Amino acid sequence: MAENKTKPRGLGRGLSALMADVSIESASDTPQIRPDMRVPIEKLQANPNQPRRRFRQEDLDDLTASVKEKGIIQPLIVRPIADDRYEIVAGERRWRAAQRAQLHEIPVLVRDFNDVEVLEVAIIENIQRADLNAVEEAAGYRQLMDSFGHTQEKMAEALGKSRSHIANLLRLLSLPDDVQEFLREGKLSAGHARALVTAENPSLLANKIVSGGLSVRATEALVKKAAAGDMTPKPRPAKAAGEKDADTQALEGDLAANLRMKVAINHKPGQESGEMTIKYRDLDDLDTLCRLLSGG
After folding, report:
1. Closest-CA residue to 289 (of 273, 271, 277)
2. How far apart are CA 10 and CA 118, in angstroms?
3. Which of 3, 5, 19, 289 has the largest CB neighbor count within 10 A?
4. What is the biggest distance separating any 2 CA atoms in the chain, rounded to whole angstroms?
5. pTM listed for this prediction
């Protein structure tokens, strides 16, 4: 049997259409949506493939108090499964809070999603959450791109984000795990992390930044000093004479995100010429780069 190399896609109804359901379901500042029906709470079950597994206790406590006072304002999105039961597509946190608030029924919107669309909606819902850190948000974008073939442009249009926002976040996934953990813990901001993406030793620098409580500007200066061989952090850096403009930095970021390699663009002062450097990690990267440059 011939191997099926077609990339899996969950676009039967389109990313924008799936996004519309999640926006309706998750909006907290819109009038209450009329549910399709109310379902006994014991008839609902969580999605076993829900990509978000961590639910902060304090968030659940706050949500439970809100549910006790106001009930479930926006209905959950569910899909029917066997034995007159329903699987939660979006809204698991409210279901958990409703259980703790001892509600007997929950309002739902019933959608006939397939398995691929369920995963896609779950990822989109997580991306839309306000409390996501930069790494979690970037991982959601990467999962949408890898699993469903979405482009940065398509996601930006459907999700209401700028393409540069998505590209800059995707670059953070190239950082070492320990640096990404600093981001998850809130010890580093996305601004700190973006400065570290082009560094040769991001883990070492990240520890210096955290221990020294450096600002983003001081971090940018530290990265430049490290590249020049000086590892002494300076909290108040002077602006470098040849500092790249924002357009050049954005172009470097876009190319790095698309190639998944470090890219540096250097213009000759006062001229239109310059050079671009692409750093590859291994022979597979080199093979990919040669194939792209040769039009393969």
Report:
1. 277
2. 9
3. 19
4. 73
5. 0.55
Q: How far apart are CA 173 and CA 136, in angstroms?
A: 10
Q: For residue 111, give the nearest of 147, 136, 137, 86 by alpha carbon.
A: 86
- H or E element at residue 37: strand 37-40
Q: Could you write out the DSSP letters of every residue in 69-81?
A: HH---SPEEEEEE
Numbers of helices and strands, H then E, in the chain:
13, 7
DSSP code at position 83: T
3 is catalytic: no
Give every CB contact of residue 10 below 8 A, 6+ residues apart in sequence.
18, 114, 116, 117, 119, 120, 147, 148
Backbone phi, then psi, for 183, in 5-degree steps? Answer: -65, -45
Dist CA 105 CA 39 (whole Å): 5
Angle in degrees, 0-180, between the axes of helices 134-148 and 177-184, rounded to the nearest 10:
120
Helix (H, G, I), strand (E, B) or coil at 90: strand
Cα atoms in the 13 Å half-sphere on the side-chain side of 227? 12
| Active-site residue (options: 92, 117, 120, 136) | 92
**Surface-to-core class of residue 268, CB atoms within 10 Å of its CB (0-12 exposed, 13-18 middle, 19+ buried):** exposed
CA dist 36 and 110 (Å) reads 7
CB 218 within 8 A of CB 233: yes
Distance in angstroms (rounded) separating the CA atoms of residues 95 and 44: 8
Q: Compute mean pLDDT per 10 residues along the chain, 296 residues long, and list them.
A: 39 55 52 75 83 67 87 87 86 88 90 81 72 80 82 81 88 92 89 90 92 91 84 50 69 79 79 82 81 76
* Whole-Å CA distances, 282 to 142, 285, 289: 21, 5, 11
